[in-house]
Amino acid sequence: MQKLTGNYLKVMREQWQDIEFLFIDEISMVPYEMLCMIDNRLQQFKTVNVLFSGINLIVFGDLMQLPPIRGSQVFNQPQYMAPAIHLWQLFTRNVTAISRIKAQDQLVDAARTRNIEALDMSKIIPTDMNKTGGLPAELEIFVGAKVMLRSNIDVKKSLVNGAIGFITEIHWLDFRGTQMYRHSSYCEFWQ
After folding, report:
1. What is the mean pLDDT of each successive set of 10 residues along the chain, which is 191 residues long?
2. 10: exposed, middle or buried (C-beta count within 10 Å: 0-12, 13-18, 19+)?
3. What are phi and psi of 162, to 5 degrees?
4. Could you write out the DSSP letters of every residue in 36-85?
5. Where is 170: in which H helix or E strand?
6. Nearest-angstrom CA–CA distance, 131 and 125
């Protein structure tokens, strides 16, 4: 990363002179390399030779949710940077508990044991249409029902976002412990 010089550096120093906090949302999407660049830039702006120029970084997000598109995860220092200070290890962490943690534990246990029917879904998934973005609590499917793909599956076969099809068969399988659900359905899409 090139150092800033001239008038641009002067303007940036003026803009950052009174800044005490920097907030970063969705921290899981920030690569470790970017965190190092932020540190580098802040030291140029504030001319203080301490990490992040003494600016308090407050970061938010679920570290395991969305990884960065390129680079190492923010908590994972790449090998080629190993002799340097591991910036992430210098952060103080405050984890906020999720209010629905008990329901989530039940969901995780049910998925692990493949026993979805044992769940009280009303406590996990809201049924009030005001809380579901207008989606119904149950989706009835039947042979002949129209369906639409919401993402690309196979472009060569025209199974793309927005393709409309209809359900041709529903197979009710004997339940096995390795299955998550007791049935499957087949769809045919117009081309």
Report:
1. 87 90 90 89 85 87 80 79 73 60 64 68 68 70 84 84 86 54 56 48
2. exposed
3. 95, -10
4. HHHHHHHHHHH---SGGGGPEEEE-S-TTTS--SSS-BTT---GGGTTS-
5. strand 164-172
6. 10
- CB count within 10 Å of CB 77 equals 20
Residue closest to 189 by CA, chosen among 61, 115, 155, 1: 155
Q: How far apart are CA 191 and CA 189, in angstroms?
A: 6
SS3 label, residue 31: strand
CA 78, 80, 81, 84: dihedral to nearest 10 degrees?
130
Between CA 35 and CA 41 the distance in angstroms is 10
Q: 129 burial class (0-12, 13-18, 19+ CB within 10 angstroms)?
A: exposed
Q: Are 28 and 62 in contact (CB under 8 A)?
A: yes
- Contact between 32 and 78 under an 8 Å Cβ cutoff? The reply is yes
pLDDT digits (tens, 9 = 90+) for 133-163: 666 777 778 888 888 887 788 888 888 888 8
Which residue bears the tokens 């005001």?
130
Question: Shortest CA distance to 118 belongs to which of 106, 103, 102?
Answer: 106
Q: What single letter denotes the amino acid at residue 46?
A: K
Q: How far apart are CA 66 and CA 58, in angstroms?
A: 18
